[in-house]
Structure prediction request, 135 residues.
Amino acid sequence: MSMPPPPTPPQMGNANAIGGKTPLTEQQKRENHVKSEQKRRNEIRIGCERLASLLDMKGQGKSEARILELTVQAIKEQLALKEAIKQHIEETRGQASVNAVDEMYREAMEDAKTNNYGIGPVERRGSRIKKEDEY
Prediction:
């Protein structure tokens, strides 16, 4: 007398299933890929909009490449300014006044504006120097 085959456990319903789940169809895979790509592009667009809002881009194209280029220029300018301020403080043996540092900053910002680095005007508020329309 032959024995009937053992019953298939419910979690193993499909022989092709991995971990008890039915594999995705090619159409589902494509849809998931499209959704992921749309999400990635949207995150890049939002990030570029945030960067563009920090840059003075009047009269310039707002392509993602241009926004990134201006952002790099602005960061380089800020790093150079930081080094200039550090050097000034070292040269004055720590006796640099806040007004002198503020003036250096304003001059650097004007130079950046003149050279079209995309950095907007600054103003002094409290003990911090902020860009107008700071986020």
Q: What stands out?
A: DSSP finds three helices and two strands in the chain. The chain has a mean pLDDT of 75. Helices lie at 26-54, 64-91, 98-114. The longest strand covers residues 122-125.
